[in-house]
């Protein structure tokens, strides 16, 4: 028989974020321009956080570019949240740097036209122009 003892310490750092399979980072370059960087796996468990972040960005006045280059898996529900946010923004939210995992899902959903900006450099140049 094996027994285990669990000891909880108040002074330990919460490591729950260290085990995440995804990341959502908001980078504000100016009051008028924000980049949302997504990385990792976006499945059903990440949908609420993604939609909350997109809603927060939509409530502001800044143009937002969403970097999809680090996404390794994209659940169709998460893709639909991005598609809806892009449509609802009337051009203020753009999606850029899609990789194959993202392109396949957007193509299947009939939204490949939203992936017209290939890199961060081209997103930045078109914003600065």
Helix percent reads 25-40%
Q: What is the CATH top level name? A: Alpha Beta
CATH superfamily: STAS domain
Q: Report the principal-axis shape.
A: globular
Write down the secondary-structure element order. EEHEHEHH
Radius of gyration: 18 Å
Measured distance between first and last alpha carbons: 69 Å
Domain STAS: 31-129
InterPro entries: MlaB-like_STAS, STAS_dom, STAS_dom_sf
Protein name: Anti-anti-sigma factor
Write the layout of secondary structure elements.
Blueprint: E1 22-30, E2 33-42, H1 47-59, E3 63-74, H2 76-88, E4 93-96, H3 100-108, H4 120-128
Parallel strand pairs: 2-3, 3-4
Antiparallel strand pairs: 1-2
Architecture overview:
The protein has helices spanning 47-59, 76-88, 100-108, 120-128, and strands at 22-30, 33-42, 63-74, 93-96. It is built from four helices and four strands; from the N terminus they run E-E-H-E-H-E-H-H. It is of the alpha/beta class and 129 residues long. The chain is globular. Helix 1 (47-59) packs parallel to helix 2 (76-88). A four-stranded mixed beta sheet has the order 1-2-3-4, sandwiched between helices. The longest helix has 13 residues, at 47-59. Helix 2 links the parallel strand 3 and strand 4 (93-96). It has one domain: STAS domain (Transcription Regulator spoIIAA, 2-Layer Sandwich), CATH 3.30.750.24.
């Amino acid at each position: 028989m094996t027994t285990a003892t669990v000891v909880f310490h108040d002074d330990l750092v919460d490591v729950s974020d260290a085990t995440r399979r995804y990341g959502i980072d908001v980078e504000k370059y100016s009051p008028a321009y924000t980049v949302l960087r997504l990385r990792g796996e976006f499945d059903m468990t990440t949908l609420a956080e993604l939609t909350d972040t997109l809603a927060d960005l939509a409530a502001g006045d800044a143009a937002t570019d969403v970097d999809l280059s680090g996404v390794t898996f994209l659940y169709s529900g998460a893709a639909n949240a991005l598609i809806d946010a892009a449509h609802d923004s009337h051009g203020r939210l753009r999606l850029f740097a899609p990789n194959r995992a993202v392109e396949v899902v957007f193509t299947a959903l009939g939204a490949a036209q939203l992936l017209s900006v290939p890199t961060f450099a081209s997103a930045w140049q078109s914003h600065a122009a």
